[in-house]
Write a structure and sequence with these properties.
The chain is an alpha/beta fold. The protein folds into three domains: 133 residues, Fumarate Reductase Iron-sulfur Protein, Chain B, domain 2, CATH 1.10.1060; 162 residues, FAD/NAD(P)-binding domain (3-Layer(bba) Sandwich); 155 residues, FAD/NAD(P)-binding domain (3-Layer(bba) Sandwich). It is 33% helix and 16% strand. It contains 18 helices and 16 strands. The strands form four sheets. It has a five-stranded parallel sheet, sandwiched between helices. A five-stranded parallel sheet has the order 7-15-8-9-10. A hairpin with a 5-residue loop joins β11 and β12. The longest helix is centred in the last third of the chain and has 20 residues. The protein is globular. The two termini are 25 Å apart.
């Protein structure tokens, strides 16, 4: 490394955030980033550790450790320190098609696995990734670079989330002709409509899409394959079809009163808000407004937190967030050692805002809903909730069981279900006559993306289940390699 003793000389420093009271006034990105000189100093902390777990991308106890894309982190940190920004960009883009996305929304498993973090604070990897790519745009290093030779092969990609876009980018660079079909009116999949604008401003997606268009990729919006566009049309017209439609079936809460008005899936709530924001700056009011409402969010994950933050920006009267699991500890437990993903308490931006605005963390742990109470017009007015306790079932497995005597009723006007997703949408898989696995994802052979249908491949959440953007990009790159090898007999994609 250029600064072998940097980790001994410098303390970790990361970018800041706009204060909660200010940032809730709009839907703009509230993250603040380090200056170039600060990024260089943080890069100097990368310690030439010999075994860089940060780029390992391993699964340990079912959790991601290190970067699934195997980003060459020590190399580009060294190049940042040596003030070689164009070379740093080249090393970053070698493994990651879209650092501008991951540098904003990835939870940074690389930092959790950083060797420097074993006995000190990890290197500021995510902020430096953001710095490399944004400097690349600002300096004019990133320009359209269409392939000089075309292979004559045509590939259809269904879905324009990170997996579909990564596959399209790779295959287009190889010289294949690529058409991306998206059922929504804008390109980006869940990055466009599932992730709120304050986490990923949509101009960032549009900037990359415009480059991809200039490089020869064709995008078709409002194209609902399996519905308005028949599956056999694609299998007949294209040499290969890649399905990257996501794991977009939301998990429901089946309790009495679920049919009530004012109860929505989180993904519908978030999509409507972002679409209205982009279409009219919310002036068309074509979204489920939380203004003046007592909001109940069911689900403690990232999507639930996004619902909390979005509701507060709407002007919610109050927000409660139910989490079935036990509250995590502040520090690592003995069975959760580095380089595992740290299972510790995380207070995300929405919860931070609730603490400042309402004076309390919105999360209620070990709790679920048992019934929604409706008024005479069918509107939800209350929710009955109950505490959960860990028990062993007859087979000895640990289950969460209702705790008798802990029932409670709370007032609610708006309920948002953020309980995760349960596999690929059936109308797409049925249209292509695909075989599913026990998790209702598309079944493939191990280490393969090929489905049971000739010429049809699958990638992303539709293949592996609900996961991170960084895993989706990895899947897109991997399926592109398999498709390329199938079409050409060999592949030089990495």
């Amino acid at each position: 490394m250029g600064k072998a003793t940097g980790f001994l000389e410098y303390e970790r420093e990361a970018g800041g955030e706009v204060s909660p009271k200010e940032r809730i006034k709009n839907f703009q990105d509230f993250h603040q980033h380090l200056e170039r000189s600060q990024q260089r100093q943080q890069a100097a902390r990368c310690m030439d550790c010999g075994v860089p777990f940060c780029q390992s991308g391993m699964m340990i106890k079912g959790m991601t450790s290190g970067c699934p894309l195997n980003n060459l982190i020590p190399e580009w940190n060294d190049l940042i320190y040596l003030q070689k920004p164009e070379q740093a960009l080249g090393r970053l883009l070698k493994t990651n098609n879209f650092p501008e996305f991951t540098g904003r929304v990835c939870p940074a498993p690389c930092e959790a696995a950083c060797t420097c973090g074993l006995n000190d604070s990890p290197v500021t990897i995510k902020d430096n990734e953001w710095g490399i790519i944004e400097n690349g745009y600002a300096s004019g290093f990133i320009q359209p670079n269409p392939p000089k030779v075309r292979t004559g092969k045509k590939i259809a990609i269904v879905g324009s989330g990170p997996s579909g876009l990564a596959a399209a980018d790779q295959l287009n660079k190889r010289g294949h002709s690529v058409v991306v079909y998206e059922r929504n009116d804008r390109i980006g999949g869940l990055m466009m409509y599932g992730i709120p604008n304050m986490k990923l401003e949509k101009s960032v997606i549009d900037r990359r899409i415009n480059i991809m268009k200039a490089e020869g990729i064709e995008f078709v919006t409002n194209a609902d394959v399996g519905n308005t566009i028949k599956a056999d049309k694609l299998t007949k017209e294209y040499d290969s079809v890649i399905l990257a439609c996501g794991s977009s079936n939301p998990r429901d809460i089946k309790v009495p009163g679920r049919e009530g008005k004012g109860i929505y899936f989180a993904v519908d709530f978030l999509k409507a808000t972002t679409k209205s924001l982009l279409d009219s700056n919310l002036k068309d009011e074509k979204y489920m407004s939380a203004r003046g409402k007592k909001v109940l969010v069911i689900g403690g994950g990232d999507t639930g937190n996004d619902c909390v933050g979005t509701s507060i920006r709407h002007g919610a009267k109050s927000v409660v967030q139910l989490e079935m699991m036990t509250k995590p500890s502040i520090n690592r437990e003995d069975d959760n050692r580095w380089p595992q993903w740290p299972k510790v308490l995380k207070t995300d931006y929405g919860q931070q805002e609730s603490i400042v605005i309402f004076g309390n963390d919105p999360r209620i742990y070990e709790t679920t809903v048992t019934e929604f109470v409706l008024d005479k017009d069918g509107n939800v007015t209350k929710a009955k909730i109950i505490k959960l306790e860990k028990k062993n079932d007859k087979n000895g497995a640990i289950i969460l069981a209702p705790l008798k005597g802990s029932e409670k009723t709370i007032d609610v006007d708006l309920v948002l279900i953020a309980a995760g997703f349960v596999g690929a949408e059936s109308y797409v898989t049925q249209a292509f006559k695909l075989v599913l696995n026990e998790r209702t994802n598309v079944k493939t052979a191990e280490n393969s993306f090929r489905t049971n249908v000739e010429k049809v491949f699958v990638a992303g959440d539709m293949h592996r289940g609900q996961s991170l953007v960084v895993w989706a990009i990895k899947e897109g790159r991997s399926v592109a390699r398999e498709v390329d090898k199938t079409l050409m007999g060999y592949t030089n994609l990495v």
